Amino acid sequence: MRLGYITRVTYVTTEWDNAPRRLEIGGHIVRLHGLRGGSGHLVTVIGPEPHRISLLVIPPGAPETAGHDALITASRRDNADRAEEILAASGIPAPSSS
Fold this sequence. Notes:
- A 5-stranded mixed β-sheet has the order 2-3-1-4-5.
- It is globular and about 40 Å long.
- Helices cover 18% and strands 28% of the residues.
- It is α+β, with helices and mostly antiparallel strands.
- It has 2 domains: 57 residues, no CATH class; 35 residues, no CATH class.
């Protein structure tokens, strides 16, 4: 799928450091929209409506093989699994709550 130019990126604020509200990339303004709920393991990239794609975020400490397996699973056509289900099935444990 080709998105064309990116217009917006959404992320979960509790999982990411503060980000600017917008960036200029290649002469286009990209709005960064922090959400209070949802999966911290997804970032959604939005192009001209109705084009969007959700990207699975692999935790930095995940084993390389498990991360690869998770990305292969996530990229399957018509995949509807939740990010947390994909990570768990690939052997990537949920981060511990401190």
